């Protein structure tokens, strides 16, 4: 459970389960940093990187989070809970992302202009912007959980929290939509068993 160099990505995925009981453990900042560094290597639409992470690790902030997370004890007992937020205005990142691409000589300014106009056009649709925020921040969330597992931590993702109260208590700007909370820490008890539907029930080839 502790290290990782010998473990394959597939083994890490298979070993990851949602742990809800944690021992008190001060996660070294270096581990948190490495987990987050791995998290942000996630792919994203147009490379707009539609994510922000709010790290909640002080006792006082954890206590504020507890009732908002419907008293799920893991937000207090784990080392840290990371709120993953999706960016509803990720189109504003286009200038920076594609400016850099042009600077490196991988794209002409004319192509950049066309592309960024397309992106801004797509973002006039609020539903699209929201779908993109949720989809891309969710990809980062999965990376976070696997990176944590690889470093010897367990996690539990949580959609069960009061999003309105969370936004208010933690001053989340309107631009960001709360996607999920992820508690990260050292397991005190194993995850309870969960089933997966068999592959042949969930995979269809070529067409429905
Ligand atoms: C988006 C999402 C929201 C979830 N919300 C909660 C939650 O609020 N509380 C909780 O205890 N588990 C939550 N879970 C964990 C699921 O119950 C768990 O992933 C599922 O039962 C499969 O079990 P496993 O993760 O142990 O393999 C959530 C999982 C996901 C992906």
Describe the fold and architecture.
The chain is α+β, with helices and mostly antiparallel strands and 208 residues long. The protein has one domain: NADH Oxidase, CATH 3.40.109. It contains nine helices and five strands; from the N terminus they run H-E-H-E-H-H-E-H-H-H-E-H-E-H. It has helices at residues 9-15, 29-39, 59-68, 74-77, 94-103, 109-122, 126-150, 163-169, 199-202; strands at 22-23, 51-56, 80-87, 154-158, 176-187. Strands 1, 2, 3, 4 and 5 form a five-stranded antiparallel beta sheet that branches. Helix 2 (29-39) crosses helix 7 (126-150) and helix 5 packs antiparallel against helix 6 (109-122). The protein is globular, with a radius of gyration of 19 Å. The N and C termini lie far apart (40 Å). The model has no long low-confidence stretch (mean pLDDT 96). Flavin mononucleotide binds at residues 17-18, 20, 72, 156-160, 180, 191, 194.
Alpha-beta content class? alpha+beta
Number of strands: 5
- Quaternary organization: single chain
User: Order of helices and strands, N to C?
Assistant: HEHEHHEHHHEHEH
Q: What would you say the CATH architecture is?
A: 3-Layer(aba) Sandwich
Number of helices: 9
- Each distinct ligand: flavin mononucleotide
Give the domain tally.
Answer: 1
Distance between the termini: 40 Å
CATH class label: Alpha Beta
Fourth-tier CATH superfamily name:
NADH Oxidase
Provide mean pLDDT, rounded.
96
| CATH fold description | NADH Oxidase
| Helix residue percentage | 40-55%
Query: For the report, how would you describe the main beta sheet?
Result: 5 strands, antiparallel
**Which range does the strand content fall in?**
15-25%
Radius of gyration (CA) equals 19 Å
Characterize the overall form.
globular
Protein name: Nitroreductase family protein
Domain Nitroreductase: 14-186
Family: Belongs to the nitroreductase family.
Organism: Sutcliffiella horikoshii
């Amino acid at each position: 459970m502790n290290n990782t160099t010998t473990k394959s990505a597939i083994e890490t995925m298979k070993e990851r389960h949602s742990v809800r009981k944690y021992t008190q453990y001060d996660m070294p900042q270096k581990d948190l940093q490495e987990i987050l560094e791995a998290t942000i290597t996630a792919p994203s639409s147009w490379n707009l990187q539609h994510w922000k992470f709010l790290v909640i690790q002080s006792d006082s902030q954890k206590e504020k989070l507890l009732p908002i997370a419907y008293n799920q004890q893991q937000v207090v007992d784990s080392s840290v809970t990371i709120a993953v937020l999706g960016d509803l205005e990720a189109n504003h990142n286009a200038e920076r992302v594609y400016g850099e691409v042009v600077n490196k000589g991988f794209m002409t300014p004319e192509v950049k202009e066309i592309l960024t106009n397309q992106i801004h056009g797509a973002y006039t649709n609020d539903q699209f912007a929201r779908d993109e925020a949720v989809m891309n921040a969710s990809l980062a969330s999965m990376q976070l959980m696997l990176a944590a597992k690889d470093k010897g931590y367990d996690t539990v993702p949580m959609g069960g929290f009061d999003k309105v109260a969370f936004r208010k208590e933690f001053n989340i700007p309107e631009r960001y939509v709360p996607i999920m909370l992820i508690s990260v820490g050292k397991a005190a008890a194993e995850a309870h068993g969960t089933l997966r539907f068999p592959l042949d029930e969930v995979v269809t080839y070529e067409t429905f």
